[in-house]
Write a structure and sequence with these properties.
315 residues, alpha/beta, Rossmann fold, 10-stranded mixed sheet, elongated, UspA domain-containing protein
Length: 315
């Protein structure tokens, strides 16, 4: 079921690439995909302010090229790996390369840049916002392995019909990707959906609304029932689209959480020590300039796990 056929790994000199490269090779082998490693050269690699002579710069670059060839040689036992190099590490320049090479999955190590303990730095967020294909950001510092992949889905229906259809397609893509990756790494999948009774706080605490406790509880119960119905409908579609033996092999578990997605999902990922969170990044339909969606962006800022971020078809 793996559909990625042209994978690009973006090598970063600022972090440990071992985990990310191993994942990229393993996925490429499992999916019989082409793997390209893109090396970047930037001021972080060779500061202009040091005043090197041109000959020194040429020698430095030659040495870097040799070292990088050795990196690829050490990984090329089961697969042929192609190499690309650009004289930049800006996500905009890398995305142009991604378009040129017709890449369908980008894998790169996360670079937190020391920003308030956030796992993903500004360059990472640039990839998540603007890269035309799925982006897998690997937490290079995470050595723990719980063998749990979270597939985060949104089954709420309080959206325009067109947006509901887009979200459903994205949910299915999230689940299929999570199941495929979990199967490749021998992990289990937790299918997680977060729900809330939108006006619960207002009904409980407003001085201007006089609702009985029974009325409030009934409202919350109705919201929960609607969520469970929508979750069951999604699960029925999943069982139609994916073979039962495959769902069984990844021990697919449904997890329903009451709360705010931007808090509940990162908290759950931390609680189960998930290896990877697969999620969609979809903005509201018809709102130009929103490339990722406020809820998704807030969740990403709170996660400390590796993330595979998908966008809707046609992004």
């Amino acid at each position: 079921m793996l559909t990625y056929k042209n994978i690009l790994y973006v090598y970063s000199d600022s972090v440990d690439n071992q985990q990310g490269l191993e994942k990229a090779v393993k996925l490429a082998v499992a999916s019989n995909a082409k793997l390209t490693v893109l090396f970047t050269l930037s001021n972080d690699t060779l500061p202009e302010s040091l005043g090197f002579h041109q000959a020194e710069i040429n020698n430095f670059i030659s040495q870097k090229e040799y070292e990088r060839d050795q990196v690829l040689l050490a990984l090329s036992h089961d697969i042929s790996i192609e190499k690309e190099t650009i004289l930049s590490n800006s996500y905009l320049d890398v995305i142009e390369k991604i378009k040129l090479l017709n890449i369908d999955l980008v894998i790169k190590p996360s670079e937190n840049e020391g920003l308030l303990s956030k796992l993903f730095g500004s360059n990472d967020m640039g990839f998540l916002r603007q890269c035309p294909c799925p982006v897998w950001l690997v937490n290079a510092e995470d050595k723990a392995h719980s063998n749990i992949v979270i597939a985060a889905v949104d089954v709420s229906t309080n959206h325009p019909d067109k947006e509901i259809e887009i979200r459903h397609q994205l949910n299915m893509a999230v689940v299929k990707s999570a199941v495929s990756l979990a199967q490749a790494k021998g992990a289990s999948v937790h299918l997680v959906s977060v729900w809330a009774a939108k006006y619960e706080h207002t009904l409980r605490h407003s001085a201007f609304l006089s609702k009985s406790q029974a009325d409030v509880e009934s409202y919350i119960s109705d919201a929960k029932a609607l969520h469970e119905r929508n979750f069951s409908l999604l699960m029925a579609d999943i069982e139609q689209a994916i073979e039962q033996k495959l769902l069984t092999s990844v021990n697919l578990q449904q997890v329903s959480i009451k709360g705010n997605p931007r808090e509940a999902l990162p908290n759950y990922a931390k609680e189960v020590n998930a290896d990877l969170v697969v999620m969609g990044t979809v903005a509201r339909v018809g709102i130009p300039g929103l490339l990722i969606g406020n809820t998704a962006e807030n969740i990403l800022y709170r996660l400390n796990q590796s993330v595979l971020a998908l966008k809707p078809y046609g992004f």
